[in-house]
Structures are given as structure tokens and as C-alpha cells.
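Long-time lurker, first post. I've been practising inverse folding by hand and with some scripts of my own, and I keep getting stuck on stretches where the C-alpha cells seem ambiguous. Below is the full C-alpha cell string for one chain I'm working on. Before anyone asks, I'm not after the true native sequence, just a reasonable design that respects the backbone. If someone could post their per-position residues I'd love to compare against what I wrote down in my notebook.
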């Protein structure tokens, strides 16, 4: 009887660890959209970039050192479901304080869609709650990229300070 009662209160233990294989002084500093594009494009599967839509994130520390890349979602021919929980659990686990998003348009058209803009705004707002800055969102294709930051889309959203930050989001 006592063993049955104890089993009711048995819970799983969760352990969080972090190991970065690259020493701090060897990490890439990503300080421009073209550089982020070059990094994303070098890791994109060239057989899929014009076939299916994929969404990836670049994880950065507060000095824009690249901690890594993570593929968040792969979709179909013209859309990709992006779960905010996957973005931010990945950011929190990697100790990222800044993010750059990238997704491809298999059509090659670099103009953001209305859903692209709405989703990005929602992620900027979600990141603000966690003190994680969304620095940019790139739409990529084999022949080039579109940067939300370079085109002024993010400037209105990111001009506010994060709740725990002492300086504005760049």
C-alpha cells in the first residue's frame, strides 16, 4: 500500500546542460545581414531551397557571437509552420540573447508575405518577454536575400527596450 502511494508522487527529474564546442575567441561575430545570409546559405540543403520551405534560427550571444544554427521547421511547397515554443526553448537552452531568423521562399521571390510579417512581429513580442532580441528575419533564395532589418520593417518593433535590458535593442 505504501509503495503504491509513493509511486503516485514519482516525477521525472529534468536536467539542463550546455556545452559549446567552439571556444569564445573562435566564434563568428555576425554583425551584418549579408554575413548572416552567407552563413545560413552555406548550411542550407541546396536540393531543398527551391523545393520546400524551411525555417531556421541563428543563435547569438549579447555581443553577436554566433552560438549555432538550428532548423526549427520544414514545411511544404509554399508554407512552413513555426512553433514559437521551439524557437524560444532552443534559444533558452543555448543561452542565446539574440536571434536571427531565416526562411526560404521556394519560388525565389524575396518579398515577405503578410503571414511572414505577422509571425515575425509576434516573435519579436515574445522575445521581449524573455529578454531575447530578434535582430532580423531573412528570406533567402539561391540568388540573394531580403532582410527585414535592412528594409526598416523591424525598426518600429525593436525600438522599445526589453523588460530587463538597460539599453535599447539595436
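-- Answer (accepted) --
I ran through it position by position. Result:
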Amino acid at each position: 500500500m505504501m509503495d503504491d502511494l509513493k509511486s503516485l508522487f514519482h516525477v521525472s527529474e529534468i536536467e539542463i546542460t550546455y556545452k559549446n564546442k567552439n571556444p569564445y575567441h573562435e566564434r563568428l561575430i555576425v554583425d551584418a545581414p549579408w554575413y548572416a545570409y552567407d552563413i545560413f546559405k552555406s548550411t542550407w540543403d541546396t536540393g531543398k531551397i527551391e523545393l520546400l520551405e524551411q525555417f531556421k534560427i541563428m543563435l547569438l550571444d549579447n555581443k553577436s557571437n554566433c552560438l549555432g544554427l538550428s532548423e526549427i521547421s520544414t514545411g511544404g511547397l509554399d508554407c512552413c509552420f513555426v512553433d514559437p515554443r521551439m524557437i524560444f526553448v532552443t534559444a533558452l537552452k543555448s543561452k542565446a540573447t539574440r536571434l536571427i531568423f531565416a526562411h526560404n521562399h521556394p519560388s525565389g521571390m524575396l518579398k515577405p508575405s503578410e503571414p511572414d510579417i505577422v509571425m515575425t512581429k509576434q516573435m519579436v513580442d515574445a522575445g521581449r518577454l524573455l529578454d531575447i532580441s530578434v535582430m532580423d528575419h531573412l528570406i533567402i533564395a539561391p540568388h540573394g536575400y531580403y532582410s527585414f532589418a535592412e528594409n526598416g520593417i523591424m525598426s518600429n518593433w525593436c525600438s522599445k527596450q526589453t523588460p530587463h535590458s538597460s539599453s535599447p535593442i539595436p
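A couple of notes from the structure itself: The CA atoms of residues 21 and 67 lie 9 Å apart. Strands lie at 54-60, 66-74, 98-104, 133-141, 144-147. Happy to go over any region you disagree with.
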